[in-house]
Every structure is written in C-alpha cells, then in structure tokens.
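To: structure desk
From: M.T.
Subject: fold request, one chain
Message: Could you run this one when you get a chance? Sequence is below, nothing fancy, just the single chain.
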Amino acid sequence: MSNIGIRAQQKEKTRRALVDAAFNQLSAEKSFSNLSLREVAREAGIAPTSFYRHFKDMDELGLAMVDESGLLLRQLMRQARKRIENGGSVVAVSTETFFEFITDRPNVFRLLLRESSGTSQAFRTAASREIQHFIAELTDYIMSKDVNSSREIAHIQAEGLMTIVFTAGAYALDMNTQEREKLKKRVIMQLRMLARGAASYTYSHKKDQ
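Reply: Done. Structure tokens follow.
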C-alpha cells in the first residue's frame, strides 16, 4: 500500500474513533450539546488540535453522528426483513429486532431521538430527514406485503408504526429487562392493531368507491 493509502486509512480510523468516542459519552444525563471537543478528543486518543483535521467543529461531528444513526436504523429494518424470511411473525420479529437495537446501541437511538426535537435547527433537520428515510422504507415494505394498500395509506401506517416504536424506545432506554419485556408485548399488540386497522380501512374505502 502507498504512503497516501496508509495516511487515508489512518485518517479514516481516527475519524471513526472520534465518532465512537462521542457516542460512548452520551447517556441519559448527558446529551450531545453537553460534550466538549476536548473530552471527545481525549477518549479518541488524539490531541484536541488534531480534531480539526477530521471535522470543522463539534456541530459537523454531530451531524455525521445523526447521519450514521439513520443509516443504522435503516440497516436494522433490513436485518429484520432477513430474519422474517427465515420464518416468524413480521410484527414480533421486527419488534424484537428493534428492542435488541435499543439494548445494544442505546446511544445511537438516544441521539436520533433527542436531536429530532433539539435546539439546533441543523440537527433537527438532519434527524427529521433520517426519520423520513426510515418511514419511506417502511412504506415501501408495507406496500410490498399488501397489494391492496395505496401509497397514502401505507405511508400513514408507516408514520404510526414509527411513532409507536420511537415512543416505546424512549421509555425502554430507562427500563430494566423485565419492564422491557412487558413493554415489548404491548408494542406488538399495538402494531398488530394498527395493521388490522389499516387493512380494515383500506377494505372499507375500496368498498365505498
């Protein structure tokens, strides 16, 4: 590998370390706006001045984290689809996969949840964009499974699904294992009720036309 290739690889490795360091410092008590550049750089193992070789400022780092959170969320849905192909309830498998994500990557979800209603316009816009990407993929998936569903109805159902799982995720962050299991069962019931309601609405709407 050439020297240029080695330097590029090292730069990407350090950039990755900065993103991971920032995610690691988030908690129920500490949001992104409370992080300092010096803290993030120290955990990443670099000098604070070296931070600027990778990001213009902390806001640029935060936006990169929001983008990554959205990407991970969409990858999560694709992972759920693969698991569904191996058998099992669409709703149950999807809910289980989402709760595993909350358990394994709580700070990724925490960031997306907080910044969608945070004080920074740039962060709110970025978080909203990622959530809309998630809804769009859900809409496509719903339509692929229900040929009778219109895009409008599928989109509304996807929005409802997102609202339910995001609200549940926010509660789940502060719950113990037993409480999460109870919440998971309620979410599965809510999503099934939503799906049946959407199917019933589609049927009655077509009947009235």
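Reply (cont.): The chain has a mean pLDDT of 89. Let me know if you need anything else for the meeting.
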